[in-house]
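Format notes (please read before filing issues)

Several people have asked whether sequences and structure tokens are stored in separate files. They are not. Every record keeps both together, in the order shown below: the sequence lines, then the token lines. Line labels are part of the format and must not be stripped during preprocessing.
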Amino acid sequence: MNITNKTNMKQTAVQWLIHQLITENEVTLKGENYKLFELAKEMQKQQIIDAHDCGYIDGANKKNETAEQYYNETYKSE
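Then the structure lines:
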């Protein structure tokens, strides 16, 4: 499944879930919810970066980009 947002960037599963909770279940991004959502996004970002680094070590990185560049170009919407 290819999940994209309005800017045509891919969405992570956490970003998709947050969007669904806000739009379909009327969850708000206030207080503790905001902190938890931000923590989940950071955790997933680190997982994506770690996976990219493992691919780089295995020789799969054909673009010669850093993990941070890959994440920003693929998932970052802010």
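For reference, the curators noted about this record: The helical segments are 13-25, 31-57, 67-74. DSSP finds three helices and no strands in the chain.
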